[in-house]
Amino acid sequence: MFENFNKVFKNKNHTPYIIAEIGNNHNGSLSLAKKMITQAKKSGANCVKFQTFSTNSLFSKKSFNNNLQLKRDSNKYTLKLNDFVKLKKFAKNKNIDFTATPFSTTEVNFLIKNLKVKLIKIASMDINNYPFIEYISKKKIPVILSTGLGSENEIKKAISILKKSKVKFAILHCISEYPPKIKKLNLNRIPHLKRKFKVPVGFSDHTIGTHSSLIALTLGASVIEKHFTLNKNMKGWDHSISANPTELKIITKFSKDINKRLGTNKIYRVETKKNTTQFRRSIVASKKITKGKKILFSDLNFKRPGDGLEPLHWKKIVGKYAKKTIEYDDQIFFKNIKNK
Question: In a designed cystine with 97, which of 18, 47, 64, 318 is the match (CB 3.0 to 4.6 A)?
Answer without folding.
Answer: 47
